[in-house]
Amino acid sequence: MAIRAEHLTFVYNQGTALEQKALDDVSFEIPDGQFVGVIGHTGSGKSTMIQHLNGLVKPTSGKIYYNGEDIYGEGYSLKTLRSKVGLVFQYPEHQLFEVDVISDVCYGPRNLGLSPEEARQRAEEALRLVGMKEKYWQQSPFELSGGQKRRVAIAGVLAMNPEVLILDEPTAGLDPKGRDEILDQVRELHEKKGMTILLVSHSMEDMARYAQRLLVMNHGRKAFDGTPKEIFEHYKELESMGLAAPQVTYIAHALRERGLAVEEDITTVEEARDAILRLFGKE
């Protein structure tokens, strides 16, 4: 089991007039190699939750285990944990600072104490993994497009050789092409390297397309936990939380209400296409 959270509670400004409970008794397990989506309205606790998973934030109460070890246990190395559980923040390109792309991606492995040669090797491998061509490696990261900057920032985390990759809204602010490219790269990391992925997103379409499982956060608590199809069956409850199902799910329900025999659990455009073709005997 890669990550286990037990009764996780976190209170901001505890003991003051500004006290606010961001997480309230949240428990879950994430097996090795799973692609998990995390959804919730703004302020639901999802970003606070993922920051606990590599020790950036310490819970007010509760425990986090990584590979069966309590990350706040005596003698546990949080530095080692952060090399194994990589966290990509929203707008990660704001963290780029080196003179060229390759130097920026080398920074993390150098910080781990690797030799310049080893750091360079890690950086080159990471850049290839995210699809950054060699012609960009000597460029300033600030000369790149938004999508390219995002790839470089993700490569900087991958160069640490993590076993778990956590991404907080990695496609925020990107155009549709850039968004698809980033998420396709993340899916490739999951499929080819068997990497455990946690993806925070507001896009229900992306969650249906990429995630194997969804955790739904609401007012600091875990509201639902299941496959995308299981979760989106509760679209009316999701609406009460300020969320929704993918648009195509609503279209499928509307077609059923008009007497067409399409499945209720359609969540992707591809599934809708196939269902409609079947109706007309064109499978």
Structure notes:
With 283 residues, this protein is of the alpha/beta class. 39% of the residues lie in helices and 21% in strands. The protein has 11 helices and 10 strands. The protein has a 6-stranded mixed sheet, with helices on both faces. It has a 4-stranded antiparallel sheet with strand order 2-1-4-5, covered by helices on one side. A hairpin with a 2-residue loop joins β4 (61-66) and β5 (69-70). The chain starts with a strand and ends with a helix.
Strand content: 15-25%
Number of helices: 11
User: How many DSSP-defined strands?
Assistant: 10
Overall helicity: 25-40%
- What distance lies between the first and last C-alpha atoms, to the nearest angstrom? 40 Å
Order of helices and strands: EEEHEEHEHHHEHEHEEHHHH
Shape: globular
Largest sheet: 6 strands, mixed
Looking at this protein, list some descriptive labels.
single chain; 283 residues; alpha/beta; six-stranded mixed sheet; four-stranded antiparallel sheet; 11 helices; 21% strand
Quick take:
The protein has 283 residues and is α/β, with parallel strands linked by helices.
Topology:
Blueprint (H helix, E strand, L loop, with lengths): L2 E10 L7 E11 L4 E5 L6 H7 L8 E6 L2 E2 L7 H7 E4 L12 H11 L4 H14 L16 H13 L5 E5 L7 H18 L2 E5 L3 H7 L2 E6 L2 E6 L1 H5 L2 H6 L6 H11 L11 H11 L4
Parallel strand pairs: 3-8, 3-9, 6-7, 7-8
Antiparallel strand pairs: 1-2, 1-4, 4-5, 9-10
Helix pairs in contact: 3-4, 3-5, 4-5, 5-6
